[in-house]
Amino acid sequence: MKICNTKVITNFNKQNCNGFTVYGQEAFCPIAWTDWALYFNSTTSAKVMNSLENSMGIHVWNLHSKHTPIIVGSKQPYGLVAQKYCSSIFSLAEDFF
Predict the structure, then answer these.
(1) What CA–CA distances, in Å, run from 42 to 9, 52, 70?
(2) H or E segment at 50?
(3) Biggest CA-to-CA distance, the chain
(4) CA-to-CA separations, 47 to 30, 58, 80, 84, 94, in angstroms, rounded
(5) CA-to-CA distance for 39 and 13, rounded, in angstroms?
(6) How far apart are alpha carbons 13 and 46 in whole angstroms?
(7) What pTM was computed for the model?
(8) Rounded distance between C-alpha atoms, residue 22 and residue 42, angstroms
(9) Are 35 and 7 in contact (CB under 8 A)?
(10) What's the CA gap between 71 and 56, in Å, rounded?
(11) Whole-angstrom distance between the N-terminal and C-terminal Cα of the chain?
(12) Mind listing the pLDDT tens digit for each residue in 52-79?
């Protein structure tokens, strides 16, 4: 907050933050932690992928998701994102990523 010369989060912008851009939650956490399972649900894939369109990254809440399998060839949103943005690593997976 010292960099931004304000304590009001809605005033965090380039002008108040010495040229730094402060992004909102949707930039990196478009899915709330309470909905972490949506990243692994093939039936909600279109809705989830749509909500990720304007994100710069995603947080998949590893504390909750670390034992959830990502099936290669499925429509699980996490797998679709990995296939698109980490294609060389994703291509090494056989049945599960």
Answers:
(1) 35, 15, 10
(2) helix 45-51
(3) 51
(4) 12, 15, 13, 17, 26
(5) 30
(6) 32
(7) 0.81
(8) 32
(9) no
(10) 24
(11) 39
(12) 999 999 999 999 999 999 999 999 999 9
